[in-house]
Specification:
This protein has 365 residues and is α+β, with helices and mostly antiparallel strands. It has helices spanning 3-20, 55-123, 129-134, 139-210, 214-237, 240-243, 250-261, 279-289, 298-304, and strands at residues 306-308, 318-321, 327-333, 336-339, 348-351, 357-362. A 6-stranded antiparallel beta sheet has the order 1-6-2-3-4-5. The longest helix is centred in the middle third of the chain and has 72 residues, at 139-210.
């Protein structure tokens, strides 16, 4: 990674470290010690007449929010997968419809040829070519006619065979189109089901957050920062960065640039840019900009892309998170990632170890 890009990332981390708490002091992307949360003094006036929640209850709220947004992420992956399948099936149906039209046109042409042959036979008196040949007294005419009869027989047989095959193809195309329509309907139902689940989980999370007072929201944000800091510190404490020294490929550099250029844009489930993204929408579009088409969802990226060891990862590689591969981020070097976190957040830089890592995949060779 060039000095200019490293400077950009460092500046970005500085701006967001108060939110992401990337690392422990003395290590890459060090974060300052969290500022102690002010406590209310006796006689002070809180934001409302209700008693502020104790930290243990706020921690329970944080864990509940994590669960809700995690479930929303899983449903988002299901939605994106169903949408991608629906797009593929729609394209297949269009292709089959085109084949059916072409097949019908071909069948019409073959029928015209068959009709022309029948009309020619009628004009010749209605006698088959074989009968007319037997009535000929000219030996040369007999021999020439015999050749034409054989050619005619072969031509008629070929015409009938071609008409039969074309009719069979049309029937198969119709069956395939019907099957694709059925699959398309099933995927539409799956997509609608996933959408309802996403909206439900996000609505529950927003409702839960809306019930907090301003001071409680600030303390909740502090708990989130502390949790991220603790996870990142433990990850860095394992010495993982001591083994990571890979340089980005040319494609990886382009993908990193695209992803970091999107910083500040909002998370939106199902979005692939250019104004908003979900987690896999960001990574798939980043690699598309680098010239590599990769799967749309984080689960598909985990299943289909090449796996590499954490110690071998390099900028541009994708880190897959959680046991169900429900989140993905792009590694940008120095122990950091860029990702679209969740609803209500924006594309940002965070510590690579701030969430449970499932593994690393590499989109390029």
């Amino acid at each position: 990674m060039g000095a200019g890009k490293r400077g950009l990332i460092t500046a970005a981390v500085t701006l967001v470290c108060a939110v992401t708490a990337l690392a422990a002091p003395g290590t890459a992307f060090a974060a300052p010690t969290p500022t102690p949360t002010p406590t209310a003094t006796p006689g002070s006036t809180p934001d409302s007449t209700s008693t502020p929640l104790p930290d243990k209850d706020l921690e329970a709220v944080r864990e509940k929010l994590d669960d809700l947004y995690h479930d929303a992420a899983v449903a988002t992956d299901a939605y994106n997968a169903a949408e991608e399948k629906a797009e593929t099936q729609s394209a297949q149906i269009v292709a089959l419809a085109k084949k059916i039209v072409e097949g019908k046109e071909k069948l019409d042409r073959l029928k015209d040829r068959a009709g022309a042959a029948a009309r020619a036979q009628y004009r010749s008196g209605g006698l088959p070519d074989e009968a007319q040949l037997m009535l000929s007294d000219d030996p040369q005419q007999f021999l020439d006619g015999a050749g034409r009869v054989l050619q005619g027989q072969r031509g008629t047989k070929a015409l009938i065979g071609e008409m039969t095959r074309t009719q069979q193809d049309l029937e198969q195309y119709a069956r395939d189109a019907s099957a694709q329509w059925q699959k398309l309907e099933e995927n539409r139902k799956a997509k609608a089901k996933a959408q309802k689940r996403i909206e439900k989980q996000i609505a529950e999370a927003e409702k839960l957050e809306s019930q907090l007072e301003k001071e409680e929201k600030e303390r909740l944000a502090e708990l989130e920062r502390q949790a991220a800091l603790k996870a990142q510190t433990a990850w860095l404490g394992s010495g993982v960065l001591d083994d990571i020294s890979g340089n980005a490929s040319a494609q990886g550099q382009k993908a990193v640039k695209y992803a970091t250029d999107q910083m500040g844009k909002p998370y939106e489930w199902g979005a692939e840019g250019p104004t908003s993204y979900d987690c896999s929408g960001l990574t798939s579009q980043a690699w598309a900009s680098a010239g590599s088409a990769i799967p749309r969802t984080s689960q598909q990226q985990w299943q289909q892309l090449k796996h590499v060891a954490v110690k071998d990862m390099r900028p541009g590689d994708l880190i897959i998170y959680f046991g169900d591969a429900s989140h993905v981020a792009m590694y940008i070097g120095d122990g950091a990632i860029v990702h679209a976190p969740r609803p209500g957040r924006t594309v940002t830089v965070a510590g690579a170890g701030s969430m449970p890592i499932l593994g690393v995949v590499r989109p390029d060779a």
